[in-house]
Every structure is written in structure tokens, then in C-alpha cells.
From TrEMBL:
Signal peptide annotation: none
GO biological process, one term: cellular response to heat
Domain RNA-binding S4: 7-68
Organism: Chitinophaga silvisoli
Protein name as it appears in the record: RNA-binding S4 domain-containing protein
Amino acid sequence: MQNTEKLRLDKYLWAIRIFKTRSQAATACDGGRVKMNGNNVKAARAVGIGDKYEIRAESRKWVIEVVSLLANRVQYSEAIKHYVDLTPEEDQQMNQRIAASFHTGKRPSKIGRPTKKERRDLDGFMTTDDEE
């Protein structure tokens, strides 16, 4: 969807799915995590086609160029058509390493608490020691 009206930067970053919420996008802009030509930009800045932004999110870095404006949030496959990812290769590799080590909350296999079978073996081991 082409839009000729002014579009706020925080709304654009939210619409193309760089940030999960618009308030996170605004906070990132206010916190100096979004830069244009090395300078911090405010959340209310108007986005223009051809603008290049450096964005640092929680665990990722992007360098994007605006190809077309998008005012409303759409699915990811549509959103990626509205910008070009110019992120340097070393930052992309770092992003992949971070994603690979992402903690899902599951306990790694065979580390930590014993399994039920291992507990039974331990109980058997402990009772035989006490009886001797």
C-alpha cells in the first residue's frame, strides 16, 4: 500500500515488524537506538522513501532502506517488501549466533535433574550403601 501522507518513524518500524509494539519502537527512537546518517532520530520524524536507518533492538542490529511506506501492520511476508535489509554480513552472522543460542526455557537434555530412571538407580544405590 503506497501512502503519500506523512508517516511517523515509530509507526513505520512497528508496521514492518522490526518492533513488536509501537511503544517499543518509540522507546528505541527516544533511547538513541535508531539512527539516520549516524544521528539519533525522534519517533515523530517523517519517513521518506530512500531513507536509511541503523536500528539496534534487544538482540539484533539492522540497517534498512525504506522502499515504500506502510502505515498498518501486516504479515511478515508482506512487510519485508517495504524495506531492503542492508545489514552488514558480520552483523547478520552475529544475529544468527544469538538466535541459535536463544533459551527456550526447556532444560538441556541429560543435564541437571536426574530422570526418573536415574533417580530409581540412585535410590537403589543409596539404600544398598545404608544397609551394609
